[in-house]
Design brief:
Elements lengths: L2 H7 L12 E8 L20 E6 L5 E5 L4 E6 L6 E6 L21 E6 L5 E5 L4 E5 L6 E5 L22 E6 L5 E5 L4 E5 L5 E5 L21 E6 L5 E5 L4 E5 L5 E5 L11 E2 L10 E4 L5 E5 L4 E5 L4 E6 L21 E6 L5 E5 L4 E7 L3 E9 L8 E2 L4 E7 L6 E2 L20 E4 L2 E2 L1 E5 L3 E5 L7 E9 L2 E2 L4 E5 L5 E2 L6 E2 L2 E2 L10 E2 L10 E2 L6 E7 L23 E5 L2 E2 L1 E7 L7 E6 L6 E10 L2 E2 L4 E5 L1
């Protein structure tokens, strides 16, 4: 049996997507916006209408401090770290090309990012250009656009001879091409490493059209912030259309969030059916979740990897309040920029309030009684070494996925002990993880965990659970595959399969499942977890590649002992036992009782099979 069938048997429980919990705090600035504070602690500095935010790989934060007409850098963290000006002298004007960036004039900068060589690029919005600050000299030059005018011209030629119209968002792709949100031209422009500019999205008409077709023929309406996902697709805050659009790597454009109507509705539903209100910026976390500065809704929205949208910051109207409390109970004032760091902390340019706010995710929390053996195999409150368990709680993960082939090590034979930064330990031993989501983790108990009360710890990028969870570990906790789907009129059938995949149940007992009654002499296959060690020993977390056996396994059908032709770990699976059983000659019954034991420990499930 392949690990793919195994994944089908160990399914995650279905339920509503979990609402992520974050605490909000101000980490920089104040409503005063009077004292610059350069060269001092970042948390003592003032900001004026901060807009764009960006982190480099060293966790230095770059701020387009628009009201102060500067680009500023925070090194060493937003708390006691230091803040300095990298570009702009504070006077809104046009001057300084060829000289030091700190002596030059900027006019309402929107975004500042680095290229792979460490050169700084600035969308100098009111000057209608993109400026570049050389890492080696600190001098500033014009990289794209011309200060003489605004409009649309220059495609196919040098970027510094082209004409832009309020350039805002900036993003580099993996090939070093710079993308520009040319907002009042309603286009996305691209500048190659060689300096040639072209249009890659938008036909120049402000409106909405073109989804599913070539991006250059589509309509955009004031595109602002832009960012790439891990696959190289460009996400666009299509502000005037109240949508997030995606320029796919094949050149087509689609909508990822927003239904086009300006408003606020739709949390916990597909993002494409929700309402946004002039979103200004977009960002991704390390796990593929999308964050949206939903500016005129005074909120930060999150779209998880399943496409469900929810609010994580703001929610009680425009204003400035809520520090130290849950993010959705706070007030934001025109949040215009958003960025996520490697620890999954979300930073917000709370522009009107002249501050940077931080949303810190809650650490994971396991529910009381929230650790069970696999629900399709009995859902017992105690577990056994090597058995599969389900952990329920909140904030258990930032992503929602099962393991993939890429997560395995040792030539694809060893299961992961970490998925997207989520780890589980039981009795101090690392568990193997099959599935993660915000409210459920599926994991395999290591074989070397001793029986008794053992501490279970879940850890994410937000840290470990604050309250320890204790789980009862038994030497054996046998459970057969018998999911609720196979319960008919109060009778729970065991998942006994014929070689063709048909279940040994009354025909038509469950809609959509092929079933028939077993005949004496038929061989059916059952699956289980928690049956203990096999011979020879196969460690937990290993894909079974060798023959093995499970001594002392016994099973009866209709009160008659059955012959077992195979009992052991299932080939090509992990921690899943397989039992090939010959149906004995018993009285015909649609509810023949199935009982089993291992090493004198009887299974406690009440299970049935149909025999004719």
């Amino acid at each position: 049996m392949s690990r793919y069938l195994f994944a089908f048997l160990i399914l995650p429980a279905l339920g509503q997507a979990q609402i992520s919990d974050y605490v909000i705090n101000t980490v920089m600035g104040s409503s005063a916006a009077t004292v610059l504070g350069d060269a001092g602690p970042a948390n003592a500095a003032e900001l004026s209408n901060p807009i764009g935010l960006w982190f480099d790989s060293s966790h230095n934060l770059y701020i387009a401090d628009s009201g102060f007409n500067r680009v500023r850098e925070v090194t060493g963290g937003t708390g006691a770290g230091k803040i300095n000006t990298l570009a702009g002298n504070g006077t809104p004007a046009w001057a300084g090309d060829g000289g030091l960036a700190t002596s030059a004039n900027l006019y309402a900068p929107f975004k500042a990012i680095l290229d792979s060589s460490g050169n700084l690029y600035i969308s100098d919005v009111a000057n209608q250009v993109v400026r570049m600050v050389s890492k080696s000299t600190g001098n500033i030059t014009t990289f794209a656009g011309t200060n003489c005018c605004y409009g649309y011209a220059g495609d196919g030629g040098p970027a510094n001879a082209a004409v832009l119209n309020h350039p805002v968002g900036l993003a580099f792709d993996s090939s070093g091409n710079l993308y520009i949100g040319d907002s009042n031209n309603h286009r996305i422009r691209m500048v190659t490493p060689g300096g040639t500019i072209t249009t890659v999205a938008g036909n120049g008409n402000p409106g909405f059209s073109g989804d599913g077709g070539p991006a250059t023929k589509a309509e955009l309406n004031s595109p602002f912030g832009i960012t790439f996902d891990a696959s190289g697709n460009l996400y666009i805050a299509d502000s005037g259309n109240n949508r997030i659009r995606v320029l796919m790597t094949n050149g087509t454009i689609v909508t990822a969030a927003g239904n086009g109507k300006a408003g606020y509705s739709g949390d916990m539903i597909p993002a494409t059916t929700a309402e946004l209100n002039q979103p200004f910026d977009v960002a991704f976390d390390p796990y593929g979740n999308l964050y949206i500065a939903d500016t005129n809704n005074f909120r930060i929205r999150k779209v998880n990897t399943s496409g469900t949208i929810l609010t994580i910051g703001g929610g009680t109207g425009a204003g400035y309040s809520g520090d130290g409390f849950i993010g959705t109970n706070s007030k934001l004032g025109f949040p215009s920029g958003v960025v996520v760091d490697s620890s999954n902390d979300v930073y917000i340019a709370d522009s009107v309030n002249n501050v940077i706010r931080e949303l810190t995710p809650f650490p994971p929390s396991v529910n009381t009684g929230g650790v069970l053996s696999a629900s399709a195999f009995g859902a017992f409150n105690s577990v056994a070494p090597g058995s599969w368990i389900e952990i329920y709680g909140s904030d258990l993960s930032f992503s929602n996925r099962s393991w993939t082939t890429a997560d395995f090590t040792n030539g694809g034979l060893t299961a992961p002990t970490s998925l997207d930064g989520v780890t589980v330990t039981i009795g101090g031993q690392a568990a193997y993880i099959d599935y993660i989501s915000g409210n459920q983790i599926n994991a395999q108990v290591p074989y070397n965990v001793a029986p008794g009360q053992q501490q279970l710890t879940v850890k994410t990028a937000a840290g470990a659970a604050l309250v320890a969870t204790t789980v009862t570990v038994c030497a054996l906790q046998p459970g057969m595959f018998a999911p609720p789907l196979l319960k008919v009129g109060g009778t729970q059938y065991v998942g006994a399969l014929f070689p063709d995949g048909t279940y040994a149940m009354p025909p038509g007992a469950v809609q959509g499942i092929t079933s028939r009654r077993a005949n004496p002499g038929d061989v059916v296959t059952l699956y289980g977890v928690g049956f203990g060690p096999v011979t020879p020993n196969i460690p937990a977390g290993q894909v079974v590649q060798q023959s093995n056996s499970l001594p002392q396994f016994q099973i009866s059908i209709g009160g008659t002992p059955a012959t077992v032709t195979y009992a052991g770990l299932a080939p090509d699976a992990i921690g899943l036992y397989q039992f090939n059983v010959v149906v004995p000659n018993v009285t015909a019954s649609d509810t023949a009782l199935v009982t089993f034991s291992i090493g004198g420990v009887a299974g406690t499930q009440t299970l049935h099979i149909a025999v004719q």
